[in-house]
Structure formats: structure tokens, C-alpha cells
Amino acid sequence: MADMKGTFELKTPHDLLKKLQFDLHQLENDSTNTYLAFNFFVTAEHMKDWLYPGKSNKAIREALENSSVLLQVCSHVANGAKHFNVEAKHHYSVVDTEKSGGYWGSGYFASNYWPRGYFAKGALNIILQGDAELQLGASISALSLAQRIVEFWMQRPEFAKT
């Protein structure tokens, strides 16, 4: 059996951080796109797996997530997206997700068909409870959460620029 190390250009935690930044940029350009949000949160959920891989680092990964409401919400959203029904006991941050606005699909009208601001901008919203609600509010947009998650990872010593 071959021992695969990463995929294509994604071989290090720094590579995955670059992908996460790319996914954030895509979401910033299309903040109501569920597919882009899925890509972002699933990638973000695996940052700790790449930084602290293997069974021997499981306690480090769990401690990191337990110390950060951002990572708890991210994990809940990512696992909800992947599995539809989150049953793990450590997922207790998110009540629901919802999409607001955006009656017509992206690209339905030609670019600049309507004047800027003609329609209220839609959002992907995450409804929170518990510590997440206390720290982040009753709800947070997927874009705002994504921006905070990227900031979290960029401030980690593992990604300090040398």
C-alpha cells in the first residue's frame, strides 16, 4: 500500500492555510453560495488535523477546539454539512443554519443589471446557542465566521512568518 503525503500541491499545513484563504476569498465574492461555504468550513475543520496529525495528537486537537468557540462552531457547521445530522455530543454550538435573501440564483441576471444596492444582500447565517451565542451573538454570517477563523489560524505560532 502506498503512503500518500497530501494531494497535488496540498502537502503541508501552510498549503492548507493557503487553500483556506483562497476559499475565504471565493466566499467574499459570493457570500450566499452554499457550495463555497461548505468548501471553506470543511477545509477549516481539518486545519487542526494537518497541524497535529495522528492518534498521538488527538488530545492536542481536542484541547485546541475546546479552547476556541470559533473552532467549536466551525466543527459543528462542517460536520453538519458533511453528515447532515450531527449526533456527536461535543457539537452543541449551532441551532440551525439559514439562507436569507437572494431570490434569484447567482448569475440569473447579467452583471450590473440592477443598480448596486437595489436588492438587500443575502447571507448565509448560523444560529448559535450556549457559549457561542454569548461570545458571537445569536447569529453570525458564514462570511463573518469564516473571516474570524482565517484570522485565528493566521495568528497561530505555527504560521508565524519567519
Question: What do these coordinates show?
Answer:
The chain is mainly alpha-helical and 162 residues long. The protein has a domain at 13-87 and 143-159. It contains seven helices and three strands, in the order H-H-H-H-H-E-E-H-E-H. A three-stranded antiparallel β-sheet has the order 1-2-3. The radius of gyration is 17 Å and the shape is globular. The model has no long low-confidence stretch (mean pLDDT 85).
Structural class: mainly alpha
For the termini, the CA-CA separation is 36 Å
Which residues sit in consecutive blocks of at least 5 with pLDDT less than 50?
A: none
Strand content: 5-15%
Short précis:
By secondary structure, this protein is mainly alpha-helical. The chain has helices at residues 13-29, 34-45, 47-51, 58-66, 69-83, 130-136, 142-154; strands spanning 94-100, 123-128, 139-141.
